[in-house]
Amino acid sequence: MLSDDEREQLESWARRPKSAQALAMRSRIILACEGDSSNTQIAADLKVARSVVTKWRNRFVVDRLDGLLDEPRPGRPRVVGDEQIKDLITATLETTPTDATHWSTRSMADHLGLSQSMVSRVWRAFGLAPHKQDSWKLSKDPLFIEKVRDVVGLYLDPPERAVVLCVDEKTQIQALNRTQPVFPMLPGTPARATHDYVRHGTSSLYAALNLATGQVIGSLHARHRSQEFLAFLKKIDANVPAELDCHVVLDNASTHKTPAVKRWLTNHPRFVLHFTPTSSSWLNLVERWFAELTTKKLRRGTHTSVRQLNTDIRTWIQTWNDNPRPYVWTKTADQILESIGNYCKRINDSRH
Known about the structure:
Blueprint lengths: L3 H11 L6 H13 L5 H8 L3 H14 L18 H13 L10 H8 L3 H10 L18 H13 L5 E17 L18 E14 L5 E6 L4 H14 L5 E6 L8 H9 L3 E5 L10 H13 L7 H17 L10 H17 L3
Parallel strand pairs: 1-4, 4-5
Antiparallel strand pairs: 1-2, 2-3
């Protein structure tokens, strides 16, 4: 005999289309047992063995719904106890080996008398990776908060009748050619290139990323002085419609603040500069575009001359502008500052 709640739960389990099919079959067996059918008839109808029907029918009589659930299976008892795992995590976080800067799974296993596989499993479970090291740097700009609010506010709420441009230069782009031919990719074998190369000169790319459209204005020069930056500003002035203001996000490089540049800006009042804080290139969205250029074109490219390098970059920019993909900024200034504040608190609390 089934209660209404039991019948409702069994019907819910029995309707499962994909997951927990074993539980669904047990539920269908119990639902069929509610009628007058024999175990043999139920087994034939559900295409299972008669012993299966008997097993789950008897278990349901004793334990009801809990009897249909899988019981914990007996297994090998734990070899490493909680105290040993605690000692492992503490040693990983608070000590270093005498002959190295960080622990490896094997050195830690030798140190604590554990197996290397056990150390590896515990590290994975707790997200510990002593062999990895990330980099970080906090800005010392005294106007850091004001500049973050200025730039992020510009991203999230651009002014009307204006274009927002993220400007920077990628300097010293090298025209490199491998000393031997690059072997193409084959099934099971990646493309292979020699580790050594021949330099054929350098080029500097000035780029202005349009925040709204994702299009890029680019200019290549042999050097990166204030003269080249001023020439790039003039190119921007020629490409942006005269009725729109130009809000330019850029870093604090000295070439951006020379007297010649300041005079030009005074004579072109529609240009408004927004400087990012020092050591905060992550605030300039054009850096994300530079990363894409490096990954997709420059890192594995081969060039026998600066002219060939420049041609490739111009072609890539043109291809990008044919189908531009603007980057969308999502974090507010308050969220960024709160995140940095929490990080600083963690650093101070760590006593390092």
